[in-house]
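Run log, item B.
One chain of 127 residues. Sequence copied directly from the ordering sheet:
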Amino acid sequence: MLAIKLKRIGKKHQASFRVVVAEKRSKVQGRFVEDLGWVNPRTNTRSVDTVRASYWLSVGAQPTPTAWNLLVKTGVVRGKKIPLHGKSKQSVSTEAATDKKVEASVAVSAPIAKPAEENKPETTSSQ
C-alpha cells in the first residue's frame, strides 16, 4: 500500500522534509515512488505539487496524519485536520476532577434504596 509521508532531510538541528509517495512500511530514508514537494518548519515555508498529490490520493495512497494536515493547509484536500498530540496533563487532571464531582453529585441525588423485605413464611399458631 502506498502512503504520502514526510522524509526528513537537512543537517542536524536544521530539519526540513520532502513530501514523498512511498510504500507504507518502507524506511524513512528508503526508496520512494515520487517526490511531491518540500516543507521547511523552521521558516514555515512549503511547496507541494497539488496536481500530483490529488492524483496519488485518487489512486488510493493514504497520507500519514502529518501529511494529511499539510495537504489540508495547502488546499489539496478539504476536511478537518487530524490532532497529532494527546491532551495536556493539566486538562486531563481537571477533567478527572470534574468527573469525580459529577459522580459525587449523582450519588447524593440518587434516592436511597430500601433493602428488600425478606419473604418469611407466615407462622400459624395452632390452638
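Observations after the first pass:
- Residues 89-109 form the longest helix (21 residues).
- DSSP finds three helices and five strands in the chain.
Flagged for discussion on Thursday.
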